[in-house]
C-alpha cells in the first residue's frame, strides 16, 4: 500500500507522486483510487487500489539505481531482431514490464539504431514514449528538471 506523497512508477505511463487517495463511483461501482500527478505534462492519473498488484505500480528507483540505469544507457547495443515487427513487439514487452533497466535498454537500442539506420514511424513513437517514461523517473529520483534528465540520457547514449 502506498501513501500520499509517495513517488511511484506506473508502467507504460511513467513516474509520478501520489497526491490523494479517494473513493469514487464510476459506472455505478464505488472504488478507492490513488490520484497520481505526473511531473511531465501536469497530467493526473487515477489508479484503482484493487488493481495495483496487476498493474505493477512500484516505488521509484534510488540514486544508486540511477547510476545503474546510466550504465545500461552507456552500454553497447544488445541483440535485437532484424525484423522490425519482432523488434517492435520485443521492445513493447520490455516497456510493459515496468522494469526501468529494460526501458533504458529500449531507449539506448532505439537511439543507436536511429543514428545508424533511422527508425520507422512506429519505432520513433516508441522511442519517444520510452524516453518520456525514463525521463519522468529520473526527474523524481534525482530531483532535476525534465531538460536536465533528457540531456543525461542523450549524453549517456553515445
TrEMBL record:
Family annotation (InterPro entries): CarD-like/TRCF_RID, CarD-like/TRCF_RID_sf, CarD-like_C, CarD-like_regulator, CarD_C
Q: Which residues form the CarD-like/TRCF RNAP-interacting domain?
A: 1-111
GO BP terms, alphabetized: rRNA transcription
Protein's name in the database: CarD family transcriptional regulator
